[in-house]
Predict the structure.
Amino acid sequence: MKFEIKEALAKLLATENLIVEHRKVGTASFDVDRRVLTLPMWEKASNRVYDLLVGHEVGHALYTPNEDWKQDEYIDVPMGFVNVVEDARIEKLMKRRYAGLSKTFYKGYQELHDEDFFSVEDEDMSAMSLIDRLNLHYKIGAYYRIPFSSDEQIFVDRAGENETWDEVLELSYDIFMFLKTKNDQPVPKKINLEDLNKNQGNGGNNAPIDLEPSEMQQTPVVDDSEGVSDDADIDDPMQETTTNDGGGSKGGNEFESKTDNAFQENQEKLINQSALETSYLRVPQNIDLDRIIIDCNHLQQYITNFYESDKWTSPYDVGVIVDNQEKYKKYKKDATKGVNYLVKEFEMKKSADEYSRSSVSKTGVLDCTKLHTYTFNEDLFRKVTVIPEGKNHGLVFILDWSGSMANVIHDTVKQLLNLLWFCKKVNIPFEVYAFTYEYPAGDTDYDEDGNLKEIQDLCVNDLYLHKSFRLLNLMSHTRSSSHFDHDCLNLWRLSTFTRYHGTRLTPNGLGLSGTPLNETLITMHHILPKFIKETGVDKVNAVFLTDGESNGLGRITRMSEKYYPDRPFSKISVNGGCQLRDIKKGQTYKTFNENHWETSATHTLLKNLKDNFPAVNFISYRIVETREVSNIHHYYTGNYTELSKKKWLKDRSAIVNTTGYDAMYAIGSTSMNQSDDFDVAEDATTAQIRSAFKKSLKSKAANKKVLSSFATMVA
């Protein structure tokens, strides 16, 4: 939580949506091009000190340019000089921009000085080098007098007046030359950086380095604990020619800032070395969508060939298949009333929405029917009602095809068919996908060694999609009307035989599988734009029909080339140290946690989807068993009254406010498999007839509640 608060502070101070990373590093850095501010995990710092450090680093992010200044006349200037002078400038600018930071810097540096962060406790400040005294003056000078000679005071005043980066470099150079002249030491020969690089040979600093994306070299903030540039492995002439044995603190070096170095080193004391390293993960950009999605045309033909082949010679099997088809026809006929009800609800709500958006305007043409009222009515002109164009909608259904759905899969499909018939009647484009790990791979899915190919480009810190993950495109609006009805029959067959007959009457690879819900959410980043482009819809409703939480989610790491030369990448689980980062949106999502992480991962992925697709509603129809009610509360709501046992036992349904989906409709599994047929025996008693009638009404009421909420959502 502390890191989240300080991240928000950094973004507010920067007045932009910076990407802020907390890592186990010794010093802060800022990548100017990617706008990534990397901060050490200062867990041991007080709030005041943490705010000081954040404010300081944001100052570098805002005002320190990303350029190579170690060239030409400035090549000999020590890095520590520039650090000190630049610190004075950026902290002045930050305090000018945010007046409240003045107190933060004052109190923060006082606290750090009390803990001797500058390593000056046993030092005679008057004997310290000019650059160290200058550094202390602008850090703790508000409450501690730092002595300067009249010659030195000129540089102190200039440091307080600096407004630009060029002025910082000029002052740093002048201080350097002042000290060289004062100590009567020869100024090192100016060296051209380009010539130095040429003299390094092919194996020098110009050699490329293969780094992981998360470890890519970042543009450092000016602060550098070593007091040297990034080209530190170049022989520094300063190390041989600028040693001052007669000045400074205890015979120290006039040409380095001891206090700046000490401050950088002591910052590491604030870091919790045992803290869990944060991994910043990404949604993969390059996935093989054509391999993930099993085409509807191909899939339906595969199902048809299975059920309508001549291999069914057993009278029992033939009878089961024929009987199942007759049951489908009966259900379709009986469902007509419910579908028509849904269409009516939709049209009413759509009309109400259009009326609410309508406006009335005068035409400028006299209304002759009102002329007789001219003595008391000034409004004698005809009016016209303008109804703006409404948004056209599309629907993407995600069907849970996991083993835990076995007891309710057929009843869920019944509900789905009702919704699909509704979509067909009102011309709403739709797609239906079922997630699975079981669909058989084809010849092109294997590499030369016979291993199953990956379905994504492997990049370090990308979320990982299992090789076997597939989306079955069971239904599509692109199919003709004749095909559509047969497709509905096939879906009915699959759900029936999977539920009641197991694998014997189920095509290979279409049995119930695992629950790659999170992998499906990742894939939605590619499915939704494709669907919107192909259909031209303005609004999409993504509807998830599921009964539980997702399987685990993986991420990609780099293996050690030393120990695994033939295995560059590995897949490990997402854990509590992981956060999802979207550079495009400038967002970092911190809800991967160790408790119920599967659910938190789902919420995280949903939040990211909603940020990327604001015109999409993400709806969950959650099939719930009574014993799971408390889990729904625990995972999703935080408000148990919404799903109290008493209310649940009465209604067997609830609309759940959740941190993930835009809406979650919790539906009792028992109400899903209740028949609304009013069937009683011929010799039934009055009590039996009454009971059957109530049961039928209750089932119909529950069904209408689902359908009505759906119509409201789509309208």
